[in-house]
Structure formats: C-alpha cells, structure tokens
Design a protein that fits this description.
The structure is a single chain. Helix content is about 45%, strand content about 20%. By secondary structure, it is α+β, with helices and mostly antiparallel strands. Strands 2-1-4-3-5 form a five-stranded antiparallel beta sheet. Helix 1 crosses helix 5 (about 120-135) and helix 3 crosses helix 4. This is Heme-binding protein.
Amino acid sequence: MPLLSLDHARTILDAALKAGMEHTFKPLAVVVLDARGALKAFAAQDGTSLKRGEIARGKADGALALGIGSRAVAKMAAERPTFVAAATHAVGGSLVPAPGGVLILDGGEVVGAVGVSGDLSDNDEICAVAGIEAAGLKAETGA
C-alpha cells in the first residue's frame, strides 16, 4: 500500500502556499494528513485569521472520513443535512462541508488529504490541487 511520505507532504504544503501567493489569494492555512488522518504537515501564512488551521483540518478530516472530496461533502450537506450533521458528530466535530478538502491519490489509492482555508472555498481548492499535483500525485476534489 502506498504511503504519503514527509517529502510529499512538504512539497504539497509549499506548492499550495505558493499557488495562493501567485494568485494573490488571502493568507492561507494548509493541512496535510496521511490516510490514517495523522498530521504530516501544517503551515499558516502570516495574517491568517484565527482558527483557519482548524477549518483546514476539518475540510481534510471530512474528506478522509467520508472518502470523498469536500466539494462533494458540501453538496451532500445541502441535500442531506441530517446525515452530514450526524457524520460531523461521529468524527468529533472536525468536518467542514466546504470545498478545499481534497483527497490525495497514488495509484488509485487514497494516501491522505489536504485541507486549505483562508480565501474563498473554490480558491482554497485550487491551492490544494496545485500542491497535490506538484508532488506528482492525483487530486480528488469531489466534483
């Protein structure tokens, strides 16, 4: 089973932050988790608002918990709010149903997730995908 290496996690983190700067997005927080949900890398740019790291973590946790990118979780929340509320409770409250939580795939297997928060959710997702692709891995947004 492929594993998400620390080198991959650092590449994802750096490339996601770089994408945000290149697009002149608001300051971002980026979380990279392995397939178990263990924290592999985290950074918050200067000027991020309070709790952005926790929001980014919730996007990544939700993607891993449900096995779909958080864009799909957001759609699910609109269509089945009771289920998403229950799932949020089941994972200890760390599930944010908004784009920006992206599954990391290697050879078709989920090896982790990235969560980004700080700008519009669509922009957060752009940065997460850029980071994953920079590491030579595949992104699953839930689109």
